[in-house]
Design goal:
This protein is an alpha/beta fold. The protein has helices spanning 18-30, 37-40, 51-56, 124-131, 151-162, 176-179, 182-185, 188-197, 218-229, 248-261, 284-295, and strands spanning 6-7, 35-36, 78-80, 83-87, 90-94, 138-142, 169-174, 204-208, 233-240, 265-270, 306-311, 314-321, 325-333, 342-346, 359-361, 370-372, 375-377. Helices cover 26% and strands 22% of the residues.
C-alpha cells in the first residue's frame, strides 16, 4: 500500500528555493495552499513552466487585481445549508470544503477561507429538501472534493440519496483520480460502495478533473479501471487554462488519452474570472480557437465536449465565431424561457466573460430561427 502525505506548508517543499518561498508568503496568506506527495512527484522541477507546478504551486500573479470570488453568484442558489438548486432537475451538494490539492485556478477558493459557511457537515436539511422536491432526478456531490471524505461518511450520504425514488443519477465531482489515485486503489470499501449503489437503474457518475496529459499516469489509469469495473460511469471536465493546457496540441493529447482510457471529455470550461485567477485567464476567442484546433487533431470519440461558460444565468456554450460576431447558446438556463436560446454578440477579442460582450440579437422567429438583420441563423437544437 502506497502512503500519500499531505503538505500544507511551502517550507516542506525542498525543491522550492528559500527566496521563492518568502516571495510567495503573501499569496498563501490570501489563498490557502495544500497539496500532497504523489502530486508533487509528477512535477518536472527543472522546468519552471511545468503545468502541474502551475496547478499546485502558488505564484505572485495571483495577487494581481482580477475578477471577484463568487463571479457566478452561487450564493443566490442555496435552498438549504450546503445545497444549491439552480436547474430544475439537478441539486448540488457542497459536502466538504477540503480537496486533496488546492488548484491555484479554483473558482471556489472562497470555500477555503475562514469566513466560509457555504458547505455543510449536517446535510439532513439538504437531503430533506431533495426528498420533497420530486423534479430533482440527479444530484451532484461537490465541494471541495467529496472523495476526501471518509468512505463511511460518503456511504451515509449516498445511502440517503439512493433511498429517494426520484433521484436516479448521483454525480461526484472529483480530482482525486488525478491528484491522489491511491485514495481509490487503497480502499476496497470505497469500490464496494460504488458496486452497491451504481446499477443499471441508477448510475453513479464520477466527473474527473484531468487538466493535462501528465496527470494520466499508470497509477491514475489503474484507479480509473477499478472505478469502471465497480460500475461507475466516468466523464472528464476541465477549464482551459493559460500556461497549463491552452495549447491545442496539449488539449488534443489530453482528449485523445482520455478517450483511450474510457473517460470521455464532457465539458471544457471557459475559466471564470475569479479573484486570483488572472495568470490562467484566456479570452473567449482564445479558448474557442484552442479547443476547435484541438478537435481537428482527434477522433470523434475524443471531441464530443462543448466549450461552456458557467454563468449566473446558466451554462452557456460558445458555438460559433466569425469576423464580426460571437455565437453563444444556452446549454442550461436558470430561466426555462431561455433554454436553447441562441445569442449573437459583437465579436470582442478582449472579452473574458458574457458580461464583457455587447449583444446584437437573441430573438426567435416562430419557425425556430433567430434573425440577425436579414440573415437567418439556426437555433442549434
Amino acid at each position: 500500500m502506497t502512503r500519500v502525505s499531505y503538505i500544507r506548508n511551502l517550507d516542506s517543499i525542498r525543491q522550492l528555493p528559500e527566496s521563492e518561498k518568502r516571495e510567495l508568503l503573501p499569496v498563501v496568506e490570501r489563498y490557502q495552499f495544500r497539496t500532497n506527495s504523489y502530486y508533487l512527484s509528477l512535477i518536472n522541477w527543472s522546468d519552471p513552466n511545468d503545468p502541474i507546478r502551475r496547478i499546485a504551486i502558488p505564484q505572485t500573479g495571483e495577487l494581481r487585481e482580477f475578477g471577484r470570488l463568487d463571479v457566478s453568484n452561487e450564493h443566490t442558489n442555496y435552498v438549504a445549508p450546503g445545497c444549491q438548486h439552480k436547474y430544475p432537475h439537478t441539486a448540488l451538494l457542497l459536502c466538504t470544503e477540503m480537496c486533496a490539492s488546492f488548484c491555484r485556478f479554483c473558482f471556489r477558493k472562497r470555500l477555503f477561507m475562514e469566513d466560509n459557511d457555504e458547505t455543510a457537515i449536517n446535510l439532513t436539511p439538504a437531503i430533506d429538501y431533495i426528498r420533497h422536491t420530486p423534479q430533482i432526478n440527479n444530484v451532484l456531490l461537490s465541494g471541495g472534493d467529496p472523495l476526501t471524505l471518509s468512505t463511511r461518511r460518503l456511504t451515509h450520504i449516498i445511502e440517503q440519496l439512493r433511498a429517494i425514488p426520484h433521484v436516479k443519477i448521483i454525480r461526484i465531482g472529483s480530482k482525486i483520480p488525478a491528484v491522489n489515485p491511491h485514495r481509490i486503489i487503497n480502499d476496497p470499501d470505497l469500490l464496494d460502495l460504488f458496486r452497491r449503489y451504481s446499477s443499471p437503474t441508477g448510475r453513479i457518475y464520477l466527473m474527473t478533473h484531468f487538466n493535462v496529459p501528465q496527470e494520466l499516469t499508470d497509477v491514475s489509469l489503474h484507479a480509473l479501471d477499478l472505478l469502471m469495473k465497480a460500475g461507475v460511469v466516468l466523464a472528464n471536465q476541465t477549464p482551459i487554462l493559460r500556461g497549463i493546457n491552452h495549447r491545442p496540441t496539449v488539449l488534443a493529447k489530453l482528449m485523445q488519452q482520455l478517450a483511450v482510457a474510457g473517460v470521455p471529455p464532457y465539458y471544457f470550461f471557459q475559466g471564470r474570472p475569479t479573484e486570483g485567477n488572472l495568470p490562467f485567464a484566456l479570452t473567449l476567442v482564445e479558448s474557442y480557437h484552442a479547443l476547435e484546433r484541438a478537435k481537428a487533431m482527434v477522433c470523434g470519440l475524443a471531441k464530443r465536449a462543448s466549450l461552456i461558460m458557467s454563468h449566473d444565468l446558466g451554462k452557456i456554450a460558445m458555438v460559433g465565431l466569425d469576423r464580426d460576431h460571437i455565437y453563444l447558446r444556452y446549454h442550461r438556463a436558470r430561466e426555462p424561457k431561455n433554454e436553447g436560446l441562441l445569442m449573437v454578440f459583437r465579436r470582442d477579442d478582449s472579452a473574458y466573460w458574457l458580461d464583457d460582450l455587447q449583444q446584437v440579437s437573441s430573438k426567435y422567429r416562430s419557425d425556430g430561427l433567430c434573425t440577425l438583420g436579414d440573415q437567418m441563423i439556426d437555433r442549434f437544437d
